[in-house]
Design brief:
4-stranded mixed beta sheet; about 25% strand; alpha/beta
Length: about 210
């Protein structure tokens, strides 16, 4: 940019004078959590991202996971996955006795984990490497992610989620299967993570 053009632009900005700030209401986003979030809204938003939503009770998780997998499937999972979640198929635990290699993760048919919480407003799952979640590579390398979220762990808004999360932990936000678009806006799935996402919503009302 030449000096004349720069001077003209600055002159126009000065001539425009000050611009009054536009008030933007944001209080609605910061409503405190008053109980479990809206599970049905969460399910609707998750489905909008082309993920599949399933509902069951705590005792029905293993049967549902088994039904979502092809016969003979190999599933990887964190070593602390609850016994009651484990499907009737080949299950390989990450970290028991050693972390699985990327090649081993890539060869698996699916990964099964829990999550820290779900956000109803955005249909987002948040994992923080806590119980039943494992390390980040575990959920990013296999092409099919089955994630269990309890209805009691759903919050309504993003600010409510951040209040509940520990920022010092490794946080992974998952909003639907991995997808991106090229320069012509053609959708490409699976570039940065699983192409298939099954979300199992668990609660006593889903029996």
């Amino acid at each position: 940019m030449g000096s004349d053009a720069r001077a003209e632009i600055l002159a126009r900005i000065r001539a425009a004078g000050s611009i009054a700030p536009v008030p933007i209401p944001r209080d609605y986003d910061h409503a405190p959590r008053s109980g479990p979030g809206d599970a049905e809204r969460f399910a609707t938003m998750v489905a909008d991202y082309r993920a599949q939503v399933h509902r069951t009770t705590e005792s029905g998780i293993a049967d549902l996971v088994t039904a979502l997998l092809p016969p003979g499937a190999t599933v990887v999972a964190p070593a602390d996955l609850p016994e009651s979640w484990r499907p009737r198929t080949t299950l390989v635990l990450d970290g028991d006795p050693r972390p699985l290699s990327v090649t081993e993760l890539d060869a698996a048919d699916a990964v099964l984990t829990g999550c820290r919480l779900g956000i109803a407003a955005t249909g987002t799952l948040v994992l923080d490497a806590g119980p039943a979640q494992g390390r980040r590579a575990l959920t990013l390398v296999p092409d099919h992610h089955i994630c269990v979220v309890r209805a009691a762990d759903i919050v309504d808004t993003v600010p409510q989620a951040f209040r509940a999360l520990d920022p010092s932990r490794p946080l992974t936000f998952v909003s639907g299967p991995s997808a991106t678009s090229d320069i012509e806006l053609n959708r490409v799935e699976g570039v940065h993570g699983p192409r298939t996402l099954d979300v199992i919503l668990v609660g006593p009302a889903f029996g």
